[in-house]
Amino acid sequence: MKTGKSKKHLQRVLLWFLYWVIGSTLSLGSVMAQENVKVSGQITDNKGEAIIGASVKVLKTGLGTISDMDGKFTIQVPMGAELEIGYVGYNPKKVKVVNKNFITVVLEENVVALGDVVVVGYGIQKKKV
């Protein structure tokens, strides 16, 4: 009787180990399938002028960078990721990374947002006692 119980126990342990190995292999394959690629690009306005300090965010992750003095950026992203490029006063733009190593992004001015800016100045006042 003891050999029957220990044999079943051994079968359960081996079966559990087999499930673990198969599950680990499948999850490792899905992680390796998300290959990171280096994406570079340049961000300009509709006049062709570089936008300095534009944000480049990878959606659904915490990854991001900003453009340099020439409006250029470089970032490592998973293949198929979606980038959101934005800057104050411009409409944000979304770009999907699919077999692209260099992306050119032209941002358009957000005329409505720029028209809502109001500057208020105050003169000098003396404190009354």
Quickly list its features.
three-stranded mixed β-sheet; 129 residues; 2 domains
Topology:
Elements: H1 2-33, E1 36-45, E2 55-58, E3 64-66, E4 72-78, E5 82-86, E6 93-96, E7 102-107, H2 111-115
Parallel strand pairs: 1-7
Antiparallel strand pairs: 1-4, 2-3, 2-5, 5-6
Tell me about this structure.
With 129 residues, the protein is of the alpha+beta class. The chain folds into 2 domains: 1-33; 35-113, Immunoglobulin-like (Sandwich). The protein is 29% helix and 30% strand. The chain contains 2 helices and 7 strands. The chain has helices at 2-33, 111-115, and strands spanning 36-45, 55-58, 64-66, 72-78, 82-86, 93-96, 102-107. Strands 3-2-5-6 form a 4-stranded antiparallel sheet, with no helix packed on it. Strands 4-1-7 form a 3-stranded mixed sheet, with no helix packed on it. The longest helix is centred in the first third of the chain and has 32 residues, at 2-33. The protein is elongated, with a radius of gyration of 28 Å. The model has no long low-confidence stretch (mean pLDDT 79).
